[in-house]
Design brief:
- The chain has a domain at 13-39 and 61-81.
- Helix content is 25%, strand content 17%.
- The chain has helices spanning 19-26, 67-78; strands at 9-10, 30-31, 36-40, 61-65.
- The chain is elongated and about 55 Å long.
């Protein structure tokens, strides 16, 4: 009924370490990945007695997209075109 208008996208935990297996086993054509790494915050004022509202041990780091991880994911995905 959908006439090929529905696409299944793999997501949640897709990394350069498992993408090959995901694509080969599932046959999906699209995937989502944050491809992130932790980076230290550039904040200069840090008050250890005031919480930033984050429940992690390190409130002074943030997740950023890694160009290297994106490059590796693209490399892997191109084998399945």
């Amino acid at each position: 009924m959908a006439q090929n208008r529905i696409t299944i996208m793999a997501g949640a935990g897709v990394t350069e370490n498992n993408l090959d297996l995901i694509l080969s086993e599932s046959k999906v054509k699209e995937f989502h990945s944050s491809a992130s790494v932790s980076k230290a915050s550039e904040m200069t004022h840090r008050n250890k007695t005031v919480s930033m509202g984050v429940s992690t041990d390190d409130e002074y780091s943030l997740k950023v997209t890694s160009a290297e991880k994106v490059r590796k994911l693209i490399e892997i995905a191109q084998k399945y075109k």
